[in-house]
Amino acid sequence: MHHSDENQFGGGRSFSRVVGRTLRSSASALVIGMALAASCLSAKAGTNGLTVEVTPLAPNIGTALVPVYTVSYSGDKAALGQLLNAAYLITLKNDTSSNVTNAWFKVQSSIDNGPGPKFEFGDPEVLPQGCVKDTQVSPLGSGLICQYSSLQLDPGVSFTLVMHSPNPPQSGKDSNLKLSWTVQAGQGSADSNPSNIVKKDSPVTVLSVNSEAGLRSYVLKDDPFKVANGGSQTEVKPSQSVPVDLKQAVNGNSCSPMYKKCLQSTLKILDVNGLEIQFNTTAHPGYLVINLLRDKSTLKGFADISIAATQLHYTGADGSYTIPMCQETSLGSGVWTIPLYSRCVMPVSTDGSTGTFVDGAGHFHFRVLGNSNGVVDW
């Protein structure tokens, strides 16, 4: 089964371009404003008018008031051979009338208070503006030293630090990831007239030993992210880098008589404020694409994909309904729109060009376009 809520989700081919765009947009006042508004979900401190936030970009399985951020370990068994990620949004801004000429920001990752994973900067590497690797932190690349001037701090600086989740420990227990950081700001150089040094730890991100049936990760733009259960698979490829909570289960309720077992795919993508991210918008252009792969072993002999494609059922914020067929727009072949609600399924093609087809092994592939979170029963 292949459930890919893919805001026109692509693949992980262009990590360096993703990181590059993230860093080039680091001074975005909009992103900074959103992060600062989420102060209850992040580590925040001020030093002589300088505000610093280190906010987890991870699925929150707790509440807005008592968040529990978590991502899954990588590893062949737990993650179907995928590299799963943790991430933090860093923002620094002088949002007062105080004069802050320079600021020095140092940060390093840590797992269970020991050494942490390296930050991922793409290939070739593109470090955040103003930052260099801290040669005193091991392993090299798991720590940064960044310097910013008033010209950068007054509008604000923002960047994302991404880390691959390591393989699970031999103990099989969850671990805690955090970022430890200091910030020093003053009127001159670091040695002449600095303010007090603020030392903080970020909120913890739990590295969870999940099964492949349910995984959580910060998914990079165009990277595939998948889960499997019941002989089938659900895959997501977002058009923007987002935290994703994805599950697939065998549903005990009745479903199409063409199936030997019923499946259910659940997708949750929330922003740093705990709000559902809407796709096909200015902020997140392109539909979410959900690819569902149903293994031939889960089908009965008389199963017909043309009928099966009309029986997918969706439950989400806009209700519960049978997913309608997508419609081509007047712009021409290959441009599709959702006629009703927030989901549609692509029509069946013989060559797989629309993503809904039967492959050579007899597996059913469904492609669903959407713009929101939700559950698909199929």
Notes on the protein architecture:
By secondary structure, the chain is mainly beta. It folds into two domains: 15-208, Sandwich (Immunoglobulin-like); 214-377. Helices cover 8% and strands 39% of the residues. The chain has helices at 15-24, 29-37, 76-79, 150-153, 305-308; strands spanning 43-47, 50-56, 69-72, 85-94, 102-111, 114-115, 131-133, 143-149, 157-164, 175-186, 194-201, 205-208, 214-219, 225-229, 232-236, 242-251, 262-268, 288-294, 313-316, 319-322, 327-328, 336-337, 343-345, 357-358, 364-370, 374-377. The strands form five sheets. Strands 3, 5, 6, 7, 8, 10, 11 and 12 form an eight-stranded mixed sheet that branches. A six-stranded antiparallel sheet has the order 13-16-17-26-19-20, with no helix packed on it. Strands 14, 15, 18, 23, 24 and 25 form a six-stranded antiparallel sheet that branches. The N and C termini lie close together (9 Å).
What structural category do the secondary elements indicate? mainly beta
Query: Helix amount, in percent?
Result: under 10%
**Count of DSSP helices?**
5
Query: Based on CA inertia axes, which overall geometry fits?
Result: elongated
| Secondary-structure arrangement, i.e. CATH architecture of the largest domain | Sandwich
Distance between the termini: 9 Å
At the first level of CATH, the class of the largest domain is Mainly Beta
Number of strands: 26
Mean pLDDT, to the nearest integer, reads 80
What keywords describe this structure?
378 residues; 2 domains; 26 strands
How is this structure best summarized?
By secondary structure, the protein is mostly beta strands.
